[in-house]
Amino acid sequence: MALDLPAPFGKTAAEARYIDWRMTLQGKERRYWLAYEDLASLALAAPPGAWSAGRGQLLLGKGQAVLPTSPGLTVGGSLSELDWDVWQSTLKRYAPAQSPVSSDFIRRVVLKIGRFQGFGVTLESLDAQLTRAQAAWQLQLDSDLLTGRIRLPDAPGATLVANLTRLQLPASKPADPAAPPAPDALASVDPRQIPAVDLSIAQVLQGDSPLGAMSLKARPTAAGVSFSELSIDLKGLLVTGGLTWEGAPGATRSNYSGRLKGKDLAAVLTAWQFAPSATSKSFRVGVEGNWPGSPLNFNMRHLSGQVDIRLNNGQFLEVKGGSAATLRIFGLLNMNSLARRLRLDFTDLTDKGLAYDKVEGVLQGTDGQFTTSVPLTLKGPSTIVVDGQLNMRQQTIDTRIRVTLPVASNLPLAALIIGAPAVGGAWFVADKLLGGKISSLTSVEYRAVGPLDDPSVTFVKPF
User: Fold this and answer.
1) Which of 357, 322, 348, 356 is nearest to 337 (CA)?
2) What is the H or E stretch that residue 33 is in?
3) Is the CA virtual torsion 316, 321, 327, 333 positive or negative?
4) Is 191 in contact with 225 (CB distance < 8 Å)?
5) Where do the structural domains in the chain lie, given as residue ranges?
6) What is the pLDDT of residues 104-116, one digit of tens each?
C-alpha cells in the first residue's frame, strides 16, 4: 500500500513499514490507537460522531502517545523536516470541505522540527509552539534564525501579526568587486502568495553584528504584494516609504517610493563596509524607482526612475584605498578626489577634505543609465556643478564640471585656468593668456569622461 503524504510520512507500495491501527466498537466513548513506525503515535477517545468532544494525543517521532484526561487534542514530538507549501497542497487534496471537528478541538501543538521550509525561508532546528487564542492561533517560534510570536487569525484573509524579537541573518562576506551580481535570493518566491501581515522585528543581526530594527505592513494586490509604512533602521540608514513586488516567480518586478536618510554619512558608509569618503550633519536620498526581481535584488545597474540627493554640512574626504566606488550607493563622484584633480588646493580644502554646506542633485534614468535632470551641485566656499551622464551598467561617466569661486578668489582661479596650484606668477601668466580679463572671471568648466573610478578630467573654458 502506498501513502501519498509529504516526507517523512509518505511511502511507495513496494516499501515496507510497520503500521498498527486499533479501535473499540462499543461504549459511550470509542477509543482509537495508531502506531506508524517511529514516525507517529495516536491515542484518541471520543463519543460516536462527536469528535470535538473527544480527547487525545498525537505524538510525532519516537515514543507512544498517552490518552489524556482533559478534553481536546494535543500534538507534540519531533519532525526531521516540514515543507509548508507541500503540506498545504496535501491538505487541499484530502481535507473535507467541512471539518468534523471545531477549531477549538486542537488545544496545543509543541514540535521540534529539524528543517522547516516555507514563506521563502529555511529554518534549521526550529522549536514551534502553537496555542489557541480568541478566534486565532498564537504561534511561538525559536530557531537560530529568528525568535518571536505570530498571531494567525481564523478568518480567511485576515491579517497576520508577527512580532519578532530577533532575526539573525548570515554573516556578510567581503565583497569582490570583480564578482558578478549575486542571484536574486527570492527568485523562486511567488509574491502573489504572500498573505496580509503586520511585521515588526525588534532586533536584526547579521552574523553576531547588530543591524537595527524594522517594521512594515504587507497587503496582497491583484498582481503581488504591497509593503507600506516601511520603517527599516539598519546601521544608521533609515528607509521609509512604500514598495510593491509583483509578477510571477522568475519574472517579478519591484517598485519603491520613499526616502533613505540618516545623520553622518561617513558612519553609515563605514557600517556598510564602504570607505568613509564623505561626512555630513544629515543626508537624505529620495527614490522613485523600480528594478527587476524581488526587493532584495536592488542594484543601481538596473534601477529605472529618479534619485534625489541631499547632503548637509560636511566634507568629502580623501580615503586611503578609497575611490568613487565608495559612494555608488548614491551614484555620486568622489568630490574630494575631483577637487584635487582640478587643483582646488586652497580655501575650500581643510585638513580634513573638501568642505560643503549643501550637496543637491537629481538623477533620472532607465536600466542603470542616468542623466542629471537637476545638476549635482556642491555649495560651499566655492560652488561645483556636475552635469551629464552616469552609466552604472558600464561604470562610466560623461559630465561637465563648472567650478565657481568668490570674486575675491581670482588668484586660485588663475591656478585653475593654467592647471597648476596657486603659486607666485599664476595671476600674471593667466592674465596674459586671457588678454587682461581675468579680473572679471569667476568660473571655469572642465569635462570628466571615462571609468567611474578614474575619469579623465580636461579643461574646457573659463567664464
Assistant:
1) 322
2) strand 30-36
3) positive
4) yes
5) 1-118, 144-172+189-251, 258-406+442-463
6) 788 899 999 999 9
- CB-side exposure of 392: number of CA atoms within 13 Å? 24
CA-CA distance, 133 to 98, in Å (whole number)?
Answer: 21
**Rg of the Cα trace of the chain?**
32
Identify which of 85, 65, 88, 86 has the alpha carbon closest to the alpha carbon of residue 77.
65
Among 4-8, 101-105, 243-247, 386-390, which is the least confidently predicted range? Answer: 101-105
Provide the pLDDT for residue 331. 35
In this prediction, residue 320 carries a pLDDT of 57
Residue-by-residue DSSP string for 400-450: EEEEE--TT-HHHHHHHHHTS-S-TTHHHHHHHHTTT-GGG--EEEEEEEE
Q: Which three cell numbers stand for residue 178?
A: 570583480
How far apart are alpha carbons 344 and 419 in whole angstroms?
10
Residues 196-220, mean pLDDT to the nearest whole number: 94
d(CA 184, CA 292): 10
Give the pLDDT confidence of 166-200 residue by residue, as tens digits. Answer: 998 877 776 665 667 778 888 888 999 899 999 99
Percent of the chain scored above 70 by pLDDT?
A: 81
Instruction: Please give the pLDDT value at position 406.
Output: 55
Angle at 37 between CA 31 and CA 42, to 5 degrees: 25
What pLDDT sits at residue 273? 78
The grid coordinates listed for 300 are 543601481
Residues 385, 402: Cα–Cα separation, whole Å: 5
Quick one: pLDDT at residue 459?
78
What's the CA gap between 34 and 214, in Å, rounded?
Answer: 46
Model pLDDT, residue 228: 97
Burial class (CB in 10 A: 0-12, 13-18, 19+), 318: middle
